[in-house]
Amino acid sequence: MPQLTPFYFVNEVTFAFAVILITVYMLSKYILPRFVRLFLARTFISKLFN
Membrane-spanning regions, if any (predicted)? Predict the structure, then answer.
């Protein structure tokens, strides 16, 4: 099991950190703003008809 070999710890930590950074960047740049715009559009539309 290579994940228990100390030689691979640095590689695994580096790869995990890179994956987390890429995921956070993709979420903050592309995915979450779409949901915010959708929520705001729905809020404004619902306020127009009240």
Answer: 6-27
Structure tokens at 49: 């008809």
What residue type is assigned to position 5 of the chain? T
pLDDT bucket at 1, cuts 50 / 70 / 90: low
Give the start-to-end residue ranges of the domains of the chain. 7-42
* pLDDT tens, position by position, 2-28: 667 777 788 889 999 999 999 999 999
> Is there a contact between 12 and 3 (Cβ–Cβ < 8 Å)?
yes
First to last CA, the chain: 62
